[in-house]
């Protein structure tokens, strides 16, 4: 089948030809005719199946057929990176049609986004949180919206965006065409579709296993063995590029710093990065300025890379869908790739779920990373340091009244009491005053605490802006 069979505008055909899009993918082949016919579509497809084109191409066609000075389409995406890629595809396919779009995401200039919204662009691509911020400030009129797209809906729900999405949808006209795309059609997606859509037609492309071109390896390790294993794998293999997926933003930053110390050249990316920082990170990675990128799942969907050598799941994803999305970054376009997953005891339940889906494609390694043996030089120097410390301890006299001295004397006293002595009746037993230990019941503690509280009350925390300047002048005014 060819795109020409959809009877698209010549300007869109020119855009598709420039992108070298000749034949639609299965999700495009099934979804585009339904969308052009005005049906609500509930689409299920995974990353890499062309689902962005499945809704971008028919939306551009419908807008080209009936242009308006108002915004006609709203596309909601869970992440900035995916929203940006959707906007890029709108620009590329619709380049010759003159259809305008604006991206409304966090980390970008708020005022520039507001100008684009006021200008009445044809399509707005947004993340829910930033769009709500703009709606609260601008009081946007969405009464002319004809088309709503919820992309990666399962991811949006996982990230807790349902309340924000609901507020946005409630501000839209009820007479509209709604398109929802998701990697899975779980129960929560079905509930959302019933809430937001009108008799949707389901287009489900069967979930496929990862490509055979991806060598999937699994290592069972303890948590503290992960980093040594990663080092060992990098030493053994000559990988040109690598993506390392972690579960949390904090874990991403920590792993990046640690890898830098170990001589590996990484860059990191996660949801707390500004848009400029994210763009710079992606650009540096694509240009191989940094051959390794450490990231959360913001990089697992919608972002297209060429020739990724290896994917390392430093933390096991919570479900098989995320696993397939992650390792789908490698082994693309008839290339081969490697996917390595590190499984610690706590993550075995997630691994078992993944195994049920792709079990026959997994190669399990039970071995643990080898510990580096200390060199003879370092071993001898360590022995010297140990013997030196021991000699210093031996020559250092015990300080009278110290805890160690007191404990020794108490031990000696117990031994003396347990051993019969002829002079015991003549010499009274020695008594020792107990060593005084500070505790919260110590009568000295309340005094210290009261002083600390008083000091903290006197201290003033800095404030920002004009109020900060005024507050900083108050102590000077009182003392003058």
List keywords for this structure.
Rossmann fold; 13% strand; globular; seven-stranded parallel β-sheet; 480 residues; alpha/beta; 2 domains
Q: How would you portray this structure in words?
A:
The chain has helices at 10-18, 26-36, 51-65, 80-93, 110-119, 128-138, 153-158, 162-170, 187-196, 226-236, 249-261, 275-286, 320-327, 348-358, 376-395, 403-418, 445-458, 465-479; strands at 41-44, 73-76, 101-104, 123-126, 147-150, 177-182, 201-204, 214-220, 242-245, 266-269, 292-295, 310-313, 337-343, 362-365. It is α/β, with parallel strands linked by helices. It has 2 domains: 3-204, P-loop containing nucleotide triphosphate hydrolases (Rossmann fold), CATH 3.40.50.300; 214-365, P-loop containing nucleotide triphosphate hydrolases (Rossmann fold). Residues 375-379, 392-396, 416-449 and 455-464 have low confidence and may be disordered.
Round the mean pLDDT to the nearest integer and report it: 79
Q: CATH homologous superfamily name of the largest domain?
A: P-loop containing nucleotide triphosphate hydrolases
Which CATH-level-2 architecture of the largest domain?
A: 3-Layer(aba) Sandwich
Principal-axis shape = globular
Uncertain regions spanning at least 5 consecutive residues: 375-379, 392-396, 416-449, 455-464
Q: How many helices?
A: 18
């Amino acid at each position: 089948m060819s795109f020409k069979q959809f009877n698209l505008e010549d300007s869109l055909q020119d855009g598709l030809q420039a992108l070298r899009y000749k034949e639609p993918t299965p999700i495009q082949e099934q979804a585009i005719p339904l969308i052009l016919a005005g049906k609500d579509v509930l689409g299920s497809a995974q990353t890499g199946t062309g689902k962005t084109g499945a809704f971008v191409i028919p939306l551009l066609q419908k807008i080209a057929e009936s242009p308006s000075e108002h915004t006609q389409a709203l596309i909601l995406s869970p992440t900035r990176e995916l929203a940006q890629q959707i906007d890029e595809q709108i620009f590329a396919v619709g380049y010759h049609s003159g259809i305008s779009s604006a991206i409304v995401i966090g980390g970008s200039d708020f005022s520039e986004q507001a100008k684009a919204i006021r200008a009445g662009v044809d399509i707005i691509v947004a993340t829910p949180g930033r769009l709500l911020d703009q709606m609260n400030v601008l009081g946007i009129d969405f009464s002319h919206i004809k088309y709503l797209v919820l992309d990666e809906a399962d991811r949006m729900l996982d990230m807790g965006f349902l309340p924000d999405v609901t507020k946005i949808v409630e501000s839209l006209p009820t007479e509209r065409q709604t398109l929802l795309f998701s990697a899975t059609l779980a129960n929560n997606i079905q509930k959302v579709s019933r809430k937001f859509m009108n008799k949707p037609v389901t287009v489900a492309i069967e979930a496929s296993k990862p490509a055979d071109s991806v060598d999937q390896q699994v290592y069972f390790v303890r948590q503290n063995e992960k980093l040594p294993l990663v080092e060992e794998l990098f030493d053994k293999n000559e990988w040109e590029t690598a993506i390392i997926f972690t579960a949390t933003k904090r874990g991403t930053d920590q792993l990046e710093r640690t890898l830098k110390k170990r001589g590996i050249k990484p860059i990191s990316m996660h949801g707390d990065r500004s848009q400029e920082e994210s763009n710079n990170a992606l650009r540096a990675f694509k240009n191989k300025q940094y051959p390794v990128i450490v990231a959360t799942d913001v990089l697992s969907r919608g972002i297209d890379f060429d020739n990724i050598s290896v994917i390392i799941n430093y933390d096991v994803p919570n479900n098989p869908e995320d696993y397939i999305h992650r390792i789908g970054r490698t082994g693309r376009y008839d290339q081969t790739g490697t996917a390595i997953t590190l499984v610690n005891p706590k993550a075995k339940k997630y691994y078992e779920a993944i195994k049920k889906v792709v079990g026959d494609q997994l190669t399990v390694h039970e071995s643990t990373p080898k510990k580096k043996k200390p060199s003879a030089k370092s071993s001898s120097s360590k022995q010297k340091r140990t013997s030196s410390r021991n000699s210093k301890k031996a020559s250092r006299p015990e300080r009278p009244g110290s805890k160690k001295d007191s404990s020794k004397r108490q031990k000696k006293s117990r031994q003396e009491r347990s051993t019969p002595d002829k002079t015991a009746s003549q010499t009274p037993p020695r008594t020792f005053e107990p060593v005084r230990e500070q505790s919260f019941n110590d009568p000295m503690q309340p005094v210290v605490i009261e002083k600390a509280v008083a000091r903290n009350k006197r201290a003033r925390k800095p404030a920002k802006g004009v109020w900060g300047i005024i507050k900083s002048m108050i102590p000077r005014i009182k003392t003058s």
